[in-house]
Write a structure and sequence with these properties.
By secondary structure, the protein is of the alpha+beta class. It has a single domain, classed as Threonyl-tRNA Synthetase, Chain A, domain 2 (2-Layer Sandwich). Helices cover 44% and strands 25% of the residues. It contains four helices and four strands, in the order αββαααββ. It is elongated.
């Protein structure tokens, strides 16, 4: 891996922002990516619309939004895994995600087949 850890994290954040815009027709306000051992952890902020916040005021509405948003991401998860594998040169073993209807944040975790963090030099 020739890139620095920070450069790779920024590249993944940019990639996920573009994926959101292309696949979901709307991007988050901010994206922060962290590589930790064999995981890539992505925090996407500002993903809910004002209408979705309103729907989330009831328990049924909140569950509906969580389910709908989860289903949307799951429809594109294979493409996400391929994109992460191409950038990291590691196989994505599993993908986990959840959304907070209170903060409008989504967390994505990509579990890789080996420790990506070890491939970076300690110069950072």
């Amino acid at each position: 891996m020739e890139k620095s850890k920070g450069a790779l994290e920024a590249e993944i954040s940019k990639l996920l922002t573009q994926w959101e815009k292309d696949f979901l027709s709307r991007g988050s306000i901010s994206v922060k990516t962290d590589v930790l051992r064999d995981m890539i952890i992505v925090n996407l902020r500002g993903i809910l619309t004002p209408a979705e916040y309103k729907v989330c005021e009831t328990k049924e509405g909140m569950l509906s939004i969580k389910r709908m948003r989860s289903d949307l991401v799951e429809c594109g998860v294979e493409e996400l895994k391929r994109m992460i594998a191409a950038i990291t040169e590691k196989e994505v073993l599993s993908f986990h995600t959840d959304i907070s209807t209170k903060t409008g944040e989504r967390v994505m975790v990509f579990k890789l087949d080996s420790n990506l963090e070890k491939s970076f030099t300690t110069k950072e």
